[in-house]
Amino acid sequence: MFGSINQQILLKSRPTGEPIEKDFALVETAIPELGQGEVLNRTIYLSLDPYMRGRMSDRESYADPVELGKVMVGSTVSQVVKSNHPLFSVGDFVLGYDGWQTYGIAKGETLRKIDPNQVPISYALGITGMPGMTAYFALLDVGQAKPGETVVVSAASGAVGAVAGQIAKIKGCRAVGVVGTDEKCDYIVNELGFDACINRKTKDLSSALKAACPNGIDVYVDNTAGPILEAVLQHINLGARIPLVGLISQYNAENPSYGPNLMPLLVKRALIKGFLVGDYQERQAEFINDVAQWLRAGKLKYKEDVVKGLEKAPQSFIGLLQGQNFGKLIIQVGDDPTQN
């Protein structure tokens, strides 16, 4: 059975600088009737990701902004409670894009079934989902990481960074992470196996990078841009590759800051390339096969930061942009029957 009321969090206003809780509104609505080919899902887990900040603004981007008064976007792991689609049955677990709400209606072709017997279903929002796939292709396709090279990863304890660093180690690279606290440094070195870690709040980031990367930097998986990118460019090797995955340092800026000194890119004939995981959907099976194998072999570890309650999503999202999360941030919206 399922309820008749749907809780939703809407985008109430467009943020100026950092989002605040008043930019969101929690409302209750009736659950609409299903159309042909549609599926009604009960949300179990909601993914919170930095890219959502860009969707809150109305400036030009690679995706349309969320309309004011509409449900905030977001990937979800849900359970089917009603289906008008032949490929989905009540009780199925699915990965979808139902957003910040307790129930969502989706076209069947937009959903992917999840096997609850393989790994925890929440992993579909992280290591076996978009963040993991981002790490995989950013490092291996754009970054072209090779054994013996030095790979630096910013936001290295987060959903993308933690996976990128571990894959770098699997591929025989030296992995150096940049994070925001000493606790996170301890985690990625002693738990995830990074070779070294730098607290980004250190007074001299460039000197710290030089010490951690005595042979220079071959690949930089950039989740942040800003001062970390500026410091990394001072130590790149000839032919270095920089997949630009995220811009956490810029998302709240009303007026984007001036970019770094580009001279090292010219002198070192280095590559910096923007990365969007949506460009790799046709290669998803390649990613899933490798990551599933590494998980079974114990070569990949994964940490989740789970917050219970849909109403906690705005506060948690604001904290995400400030680096307060530790691991992949997800909201547990409803009961997870696989945990019983």
Give a structural overview:
It is built from 9 helices and 15 strands. It is 24% helix and 26% strand. The chain has helices at residues 52-55, 130-142, 159-170, 182-190, 205-212, 226-233, 263-267, 284-296, 313-321; strands at 5-11, 24-30, 38-47, 76-83, 93-96, 103-107, 112-114, 150-154, 174-179, 196-199, 217-221, 236-244, 271-274, 304-308, 328-332. The strands form 3 sheets. Strands 3, 4, 5, 6, 7, 14 and 15 form a 7-stranded mixed β-sheet that branches. A 6-stranded parallel β-sheet has the order 10-9-8-11-12-13, sandwiched between helices. A two-stranded antiparallel sheet has the order 1-2. It folds into 2 domains: 5-125 and 303-339, Quinone Oxidoreductase, Chain A, domain 1 (Alpha-Beta Complex), CATH 3.90.180.10; 130-279, NAD(P)-binding Rossmann-like Domain (Rossmann fold, 3-Layer(aba) Sandwich). Helix 7 links the parallel strand 12 (236-244) and strand 13 (271-274). It is α/β, with parallel strands linked by helices. It starts with a strand and ends in an 8-residue tail after the last strand.
Descriptive labels:
Quinone Oxidoreductase, Chain A, domain 1; Rossmann fold; six-stranded parallel sheet; 340 residues; alpha/beta; seven-stranded mixed sheet; single chain
Secondary structure: helix percent: 10-25%
Q: Quote the CATH topology of the largest domain.
A: Quinone Oxidoreductase, Chain A, domain 1
Give the strand tally: 15
Cα distance spanning the termini? 17 Å
**Briefly, what CATH class of the largest domain?**
Alpha Beta
